[in-house]
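Example record

Each entry pairs one chain with its bound ligand, NAP.
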Amino acid sequence: MTVSRETDKETAFEWRLDDLAEQRDRTFIVTGATSGLGLVVARVLVHAGAHVILAVRDLIKAEQILPLITSGGTGHAEVRELDVASMSSVNAFADALAGDGVQLTALVNNAGVSVPTFRQGADGIELTTATNVVGPAILAERLLPLFAGPAPRVVLVGSNFSQRTRSAPDLDRMSKPEEYRQLRQYTASKVLAAAWAVDFSDRLAAIASPVRSVIAHPGVARTGMSDQAGGPVAKALASVVVPRIARTPEDGARAILFAATAPDVPERVFIGPGLRRSDARLHVVPVRGAAADPAFRSRVREFVSALSTAPA
Ligand SMILES: NC(=O)c1ccc[n+]([C@@H]2O[C@H](COP(=O)([O-])OP(=O)(O)OC[C@H]3O[C@@H](n4cnc5c(N)ncnc54)[C@H](OP(=O)(O)O)[C@@H]3O)[C@@H](O)[C@H]2O)c1
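C-alpha cells for the complex follow.
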C-alpha cells in the first residue's frame, strides 16, 4: 500500500496487520510498551523481525510482560527505563542510546495519560502536558541524530478528539490547578501534541531531513485509558460510550503500525480508523482545528521549549 507523502483531502484504504512487511534489521522505540496499544505495537514489530526498545517507566512490569512481546517472534526486544514526563529521564535515555551507537528506524511516541486531578511530573510540569506533549517532543528532538536508513520517522499517537475540537486550547490555562478538567486537559494535550508534530514536520523539511513526523490515532480502543476516568463525565464516557464503540487493542494499533512501517507515509494528516467498528479501513484525514494554524503551532513550539527548559 503506497500513500502519497502529503495529502490535502481525505482518503481511505484497507490495511490489515497481515500487510505489515518484514522488519528485520530495523530498530524501533515504543514508549509506554507495558500495556494497551504500546504492548501490541511492540509485539507485532518483534513478530515481524524488528529490534524493539521498550521504553518504560516501570521496569518490573516490563520484565513481566516481556515474554508476551517476544514469545514466538523472530525479532528482539530490550527494556530501557524512560519516564517521558521527566526531562532528566528523557535526556538520560537519549544519551544512553547515543552512547550505545543505536541507529533508529522509528520512534513511536505512544506513552500517554489522562489524569483525573491536577498533578505535576518530576519537573513541576502539569502531568498530562508533560507526558503527552513536552516529553515526546523533547525525546524526538534529542533522538534526531540517531535516525538512519530509508524513511525514518517519529510517530505521534494522537487522538481523534483533537481533530473534533474547533477552538484553540488556552495555553495559559494548561498549568492552572484551579481550572483543571480531566477531559479538557487530555484533549488540549493531544491538540498541542498534533500541532507540535506538524511544526516538527515543517522544521524537518526546512533542513531537508529524511526524518518524517507522522500522526496516527487508534480511534477508540479498549485499554487501560478508560481506568483513568475520574469525574462523572469521564466516567460516563468510559463506562457507557467506550464499550459500545471501542475496538480491540490490536485493531486500534493498526494505524500506529502502518504509520511506523509503511514505506511511504503522509505527513500533516491523521491516520486512523473510522468511527464505525465495521469499517476496517484506515482513513487519512488532513490535520484540522488549531493544529492546522501555523500561528498556533509557533506558540506551541515556544510553549514546549519554555516548559522543557524551565527550572523545576
Ligand atoms: N485507548 C484509546 O481509545 C486511545 C484513543 C486515542 C489515543 N490514545 C492514545 O494511545 C496511547 C496509548 O494509550 P493506551 O490506550 O494504550 O493506554 P494505556 O493502556 O493506559 O497505556 C499507556 C501507556 O503509557 C505508559 N506511560 C504513562 N505515563 C508514562 C510515563 N511518564 N513514562 C513512560 N510511560 C508512561 C503506561 O505505562 P504504565 O504501564 O507504567 O502505566 C502505559 O504503558 C496514549 O498516548 C493515548 O493517549 C488512546
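The longest strand covers residues 51-56.
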